[in-house]
Amino acid sequence: MLAVRFPGFRVTGVDSADSRIRIDISVDSNSAKCPDCGGTSTSVHSSYLRRLRDLPILGNPVEVTASARWFRCRASGCSRVTFVESLYWPARRHAQRTQRGAVVLRSLVSLLSSTLRAALAFSLGIRTGSSTLLRTVDRSLL
Ligand SMILES: [Zn+2]
Prior knowledge:
- This protein is an alpha+beta fold.
- It has helices spanning 99-111, 114-123, 130-140, and strands at residues 9-17, 20-27, 32-33, 40-41, 44-57, 60-72, 82-84.
């Protein structure tokens, strides 16, 4: 049994096929706070899935599928109708990688030449090209 821990999240499934590992997670809470008024809501409007590339396990690529929910804000006086819960740990908004995966990539890029970074990333099971590594670093510096 694969033991996986994601603080603040519950693991809802683990699957491996074709040397790829998929880990399904969701926020371990029944409520979320409205970003405008700070009120707590338990009224789920809808949900969607984010697919994030994570650090490999034993050289096998890992995809984290994070379920994110939209909530309704029912606080009187708040103009916001819906909001998405914060996935504060796994990844930044619109990111395609987990935060910890991005940290490893930034370290590779800062230490190696382009040829060596691509070769090392490949040997670690991180499927990306040299230009993607550079873009990852560029975005992190913004
Ligand atoms: Zn609100």
